Predict the structure.
Amino acid sequence: MATPDQELVPLLDQDGVRLTVDDALATVTLTNPAKRNAQSPAMWRALAEAGRLLPGSVRVVVLRGEGKSFSAGLDRQMFTPEGIEGEPSFIDLARSGDAELDAAIAGFQEGFTWWRRNDIVTVAAVQGHAIGAGFQLALACDLRVVADDVQFAMRETSLGLVPDLTGTHPLVSLVGYGRAAEICLTGRFVGAQEAVNSGLANAAVPAAELDAAARELATALLAAPREAVIETKALLRGAAERTYDEQRAAERAAQTRRLRDLAGLGE
């Protein structure tokens, strides 16, 4: 059966990433189930391009993966001496200068950064394996709905690397330093029930119901007025960096803007 995004004309369909838009709802789908949606620099560039192509009408973005796994992490060819055709291998990257290597990693991260923009709300629908880069991509979203077969794991440290695709900040924010350290340093799997209990996931459902649950959540998110959602998201995202009194002041400023807009007195 075709999923809803397959019934729409894609705005982007390349390198394992498809973007479709249905009015205020966009869907980004990882489309290489034969390789368990393994990630590569080409996929990261396509993810970044999906963010750039989002029309201004979009308010909610659902991220999903085709097949049994959301994303099993890095394409292991990147670890081989020959790497992936047309892409630098890890060995090539390691041989580059500090500035060049930093710029390369920053470029990879661009596929993971736009998901927390204040003008959209992003929902990851995660099934099966979400390992390493797959885990970090799910963490890039605002909300996560998981299937009961989900297996999160951060395996970078086990490979002699560190998580560098923006996942460490949301992970610590969601579960705290101690649990984040244990998850990353052991590389163990986190299942659906623990994900919900620890705050990694908002809800867990049977795998067959995952897409429907994500769409239901997206519908609920679209019910509130857009400007109120944007202001609230900005308040919540900045709360951890503000003092209590600074957050109170931010709430007052945001509410002042909303009241004036509602009264037709906005700038």
